[in-house]
Amino acid sequence: MYVHRTKYVYEILKRFGLEDRLPYDTPLLTNHKLMTDKEKDPKVDPTLYRAMIGSLMYLTTLRPDIKFSVCLRDRYYSNLKESHMKAVKRIFRYLKGKPKLGLRYPAEGGLDLIAYADIDFGGCPTNRKSTSGGVELLGNRLVSW
Q1: Which residues are paired to 5 by β-bridges?
Q2: Do strands 113-120 and 141-144 pair parallel, antiparallel, or not at all (unpaired)?
Q3: CB 137 within 8 A of CB 143
Q4: Number of C-alpha atoms within 13 angstroms, CB side, residue 98?
Q5: Are 88 and 33 in contact (CB under 8 A)?
Q6: Do the Cβ atoms of 40 and 97 come closer than 8 Å?
Q7: pLDDT by residue for the chain (145 residues), tens digit each?
C-alpha cells in the first residue's frame, strides 16, 4: 500500500505538470484567506480544477495532513479564480516534498477508543460559518477524522 500511494503521488504530479516545481513545507498558508469576489483575480477553467481536487480527494483517505486543505479548496467550485488554482497547486507542491508521508496501521496496540474535537464559532472569513473537526483513535490507530 505504501509503495502504491507514493507512486500515485508521482503520477498525479506528472499528470498536472507539477513534477519539476519546487516543493513546499506546508499544504496551506497560515491565515489563508481565499475570497470569491475579487474583481482583479481572473477566472480559471473549472475542468482542470475539478480534476486536481478529485485526484487529491482520493489521497485524503490515507493522508490526513492534506485533508483540511483539500476540503477547503473544494468549496470554491462555483466561482473559480486564479488564486484558488494557486492554492491547489500548493497542495501538490507540498506532496512533492513529502510523497511517502501517510497513515500506517500497526497490528499491535490496545482497543481503547479516544476522541478529540475542535470547534470555532464563526471563523470562516468568507461567510462567518463555524468550522468543526475531530479525530478518533482506536488504541494507537487513527480510524476517523
Answers
A1: none
A2: unpaired
A3: yes
A4: 15
A5: no
A6: no
A7: 556 888 999 999 999 999 999 999 988 887 766 665 656 778 888 899 999 999 999 888 778 888 888 888 887 777 788 888 898 999 999 999 999 887 766 677 777 888 998 888 777 777 777 777 888 887 777 777 7
pTM tops 0.70: yes
Instruction: Kindly list the domain boundaries of the chain, sorted by start residue.
Output: 2-104, 107-145
- Decide: 83 and 39 in contact? Cβ < 8 Å: no
Q: What is the DSSP string of 112-133?
A: -EEEEEEEESS--TTT---EEE
Listed residue (33, 133, 12) closest to 83, CA to CA: 33
Cβ count near 47 (within 10 Å):
8
- 29 Cβ contact partners less than 8 Å away, ≥ 6 residues apart: 87, 90
